[in-house]
Amino acid sequence: MNNYRFLFLTGLLFLVFESAAQTFVTRNGTIRFFSEAPLENIESVNRQVSSALDAESGEFVFRVVMRSFSFEKALMQQHFNDNFVESHKYPNATFQGKILEIGAIDFSIDAEYEVTVEGDLTIKDVTRFISEKGTLRISGGNVIGESLFTIRPEDFNITIPSRFARNIAQEIEVTVNVNLTRQ
């Protein structure tokens, strides 16, 4: 899906959500990734993740600005943006999907729910269907969403040059944490 189409759909989704009674959003969610490899571990955090949840339909969207990932070493950040995700050509990663058990969640009381989120994850214009477990915690009227899963860079057309092969794991651990507030 090209970026303009996603932005249009996200904007439309936000407009639809604004008219719904049960809409939750954030613009400062967190995505962390971790690569454990023989030579070194690589960790990066992005705290500029936009997300929206329609609590009635279960529709759930994310937009991640790739250049907002922060690394311990500047050279790692440069390689990530220039060589791996090519953020100049593919500035955003997106997710558009649904929480399957949305009808079982009571958004009016503080509680925790195990959920399954399914949908399309797009990185570098490669879209893959994913289905992952997560937790939604209702707390003080907010929705706190968390998930931990792995992705394979090669599944998203991310080529690791041979000189970096021992530095980067074949599976990357991804942690998602969002605190969504009612709109």
| Rounded Rg | 17 Å
Tell me the helix content: 10-25%
What's the oligomerization state? single chain
Which strand order spans the largest sheet, edge to edge or round the barrel?
1-2-3-5-6-7-8-9
Shape from CA axes? elongated
State the CATH superfamily name.
Lipid/polyisoprenoid-binding, YceI-like
Tally of structural domains: 1
Number of helices: 2
Please tell me the overall pLDDT.
Answer: 90
Our estimate of the beta-strand percent is over 45%
Provide the CATH topology: Lipocalin
The parts where pLDDT drops under 50 for at least 5 residues are 16-20
| Class derived from helix and strand content | alpha+beta
Largest sheet: 8 strands, antiparallel, barrel
Task: Supply the CATH class.
Answer: Mainly Beta
Distance between the first and last residues' Cα: 27 Å
CATH architecture: Beta Barrel
